[in-house]
Design brief:
By secondary structure, this protein is an alpha+beta fold. It folds into two domains: about 200 residues, no CATH class; about 190 residues, no CATH class. It is built from 15 helices and ten strands. A six-stranded mixed β-barrel has the order 2-3-8-5-7-6. Helix 2 packs antiparallel against helix 10. The two termini are about 30 Å apart.
Amino acid sequence: MIRPFELLIGLRYTRARRRNHFISFISLISILGIVLGITALITILSVMNGFGNELRSRILGVISHVTITDMTGQLRDWQGVAERIKSDPRIIARAPYVSGQGMVAHGNGVSGVAVRGILPSEEAKVSEFSGKMIAGSLDALKPGEFGIIVGSALAWKLDLTVGSPVSLMIPQGLSTPAGLMPRYKRFTVVGIFKMDMYEYDSGLVLLHLDDAAKLYVMGNQVSGLRLKLDNLDRAPQVAEAVGLSLGPDYLTRDWSREHGNFFRALKMEKTVMFIILMLIVMVAMFNVVSTLVVVVTEKRSDIAILRTLGVTPKSIMGIFLVQGAIVGLLGTLLGVLCGVLLALNVGSLVHFIERVFSTSFIAADVYFISELPSDLHWADVALVSGCSLLLGVVSTLYPAWRASKVRPAEALRYE
């Protein structure tokens, strides 16, 4: 344990002007290295958090937090199921859907799509389509009028606008005198959405629930019930609880199962990036080791005098632990300060650099975002700070141990 005596001597050595300016230069480089590493680490982790949140919000703006179906992959009496789970306060909205596959054709263009039948009034409660419409609206989907809403990329690909007629073919056979033919129906484009996710903008179309049920010959059944939760991170627990309350005849699936691998890959990438950038801090800590080794060599006579006055090797070791820890602590504090400030203002800084150099680091037509997202997590800041301080203490152990092994007689022989 560090006592006031070791702390005072260590602080005195840290403040003292050294005859060897090279040692001071190495100490400065060590501190700057720690500051640079921690600043980069906090900023990059914050940007990765921002990208992860941006992707998650866009994906979850289309898919459901929790989905309920029965053992046949369909759902009878969805109103009754919705009423049974209505009392759960974690569920804030429910909406039925019909899901299928199809092929949209217009002119000479054809494209495969995922088809989703919705109730516009309910769908607006569980997804973000209503706020992402660039033409038309969800309310334009009327039962029996066979309207269709398409994504912006699909509209560009097939040259569609509001009012364009399209043919929707589905992979269900229709027996005719000419043989088995695919089912198809003429629709009219009544809206265009832009979710800024190419997968959905190019491969998803929306129909009214009744029209989709007729197209897929589902009668009064739907494919399932989509739920929106007050906290999407609790989706696995809610899905399990809903499944238990409904019984074994129903299946529940949460968003983490549908896109779990993607988000796990993002988490793993963040972990690997943390390890790689922490190596920068470790390199700076090597400079701390070299600095303290030189300081111990320079202070051999002082150490010998302290030993002759009765200072124990343990106290000598504590003195140099304090000196090395101060370097690590100073670098960590400055690095955290710079990292937090940069993480909170990285978007503005990128815009400033783009204006000064008349360039664009983030092309909106490629990444679908116009600014660099950043989400600072104080847990990440605490983790980075803790690891840096731990490395700072560990890096001082060997030089401090060497200082404690200095023999007074040998150190004072030529003094």
